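Chapter review: from sequence to fold.
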Amino acid sequence: MIRDRVYLLETLRSYQPWNEQEAADRDEILRQIEHCPDIFTRENRNAHMTASSWIVDPSRTKVLMVYHNIYDSWSWVGGHADGETDLLTVALREAREETGISHVRPLSTEIYSLEILTVDGHEKRGKYVSSHLHLNLTYMLEADDSDPLAGKEDENSAVAWFGLDDAVRASTEPWFQKRIYPKLNAKLTGIG
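The C-alpha cell string follows.
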C-alpha cells in the first residue's frame, strides 16, 4: 500500500491540470494524501478519496449515467476508495456495480480529471453521515452500449445513456452542471 500511495503521489504531481479548478484541487489532494494516513478510508470523516468515471460509448457520443438516490439527480458513477489506493480499480468496480455493465474498459490508465466535491450531510442505511469532502479522481471508461443495464437499488434508481449535452442538462446539481460535466465533455476532444 505504501508503494501504491507513492505511485499515486507521483502520478498526481505529473498530472497536467485542465483549468484553475483542477490546479487548486490537485494541490489540496496532494496535501491530504501526504499528511492524512487514513485519507483512503471513511474513517477520515472530514475528507476521503473517491473515484468516479465518465463512461462513454464506443462512438463517444453518449455517456452512461445513474439516477443517484441521495443527490436526487442524474450523475456519473463512482464511489469510495475504502482502503484501495488503486483508484482506477475503484472506478471500474463502481462502474460495474452501479450500472450492471460487464464490457467496460479504461480508455487510458491516466487520471482523466480531478476535483474536490462537497457532500452535504445525509442519511445512509439509517445512519446520519456528516458533511464532508470527496477528494475525487475521475477516469475515462468505455462501455458497450448494448450491454444490459441494471441499477444498484441501495444507491440509484435508474441507469441510462445520454447524449453528451443531454447528460449535462439531466443533472440537477448546479456545480456539476456548470463546472464538472461540461469539463469532462470538453476533454473528450483530446481522446483519440
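Two observations follow directly from the output. The chain has a mean pLDDT of 89. The chain is about 35% helix and 30% strand.
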